[in-house]
Amino acid sequence: MNTTCLQAFIEQAGNQAMVLDTFVDNQRAVAGAVRTRDWQALEKALERAAMSAEAISVAEAKRIEAWSDLVYELDLPHDSTVFRASLAIPLEERPKLTDAYRNLRMAAMRARIENEALSGFVGGAEATLRKAMETLFPDRKGKIYGKTGRPHHAGAGAMVLDTAL
Question: What's the pLDDT at 165?
């Protein structure tokens, strides 16, 4: 068996795991900036997180291509699992494949957990702020007012509150 495709897949899986770990670090930086209310750091952290998300997409596409090449070389169906592919390669190569796949799954799990934690934190903070605003100003419930005091429709973008609040 020619191990070029196997090595390419293992390399791409490792690369994607590294990119996912970088994404986790950037998500943690976003959460840290929100907690410390460092808005300049938040802006930079969000930019880095967006770049990491793009890098994940690129790494995913390369890994999928390497996987397709590997299963084609092994003469397996395109939807074959790593377990099925590992049975088709020499015994001494199996641990490399399964370790690379396991590391990738762990990195993906860390990224998912960190992303869910950040979403929960931001969602909780938003709900707390909304409840506080509704309690303080019950007559303005569900409305956003501009500088002129007239109600405005809430857009999909960010909202900046006066620091006096």
Answer: 46
Q: Where are the domains of the chain?
A: 4-138
Angle value at C-alpha 7, between 4 and 2, nearest 5 degrees: 30
Distance CA 163, CA 165 (A): 5
Q: What is the pTM of this model?
A: 0.71
**3-class state of residue 134 by DSSP:** helix
Residues 6+ apart with CB under 8 A from 37: none
CA–CA distance, 147 with 141 (Å, rounded to integer): 17
- Eight-state DSSP code of residue 51: H
CA distance 121 to 114: 10
Determine the Cα–Cα distance for residues 73 and 87; give it in Å rounded to an integer: 14
| Token pair of 96 as six digits | 């490399």
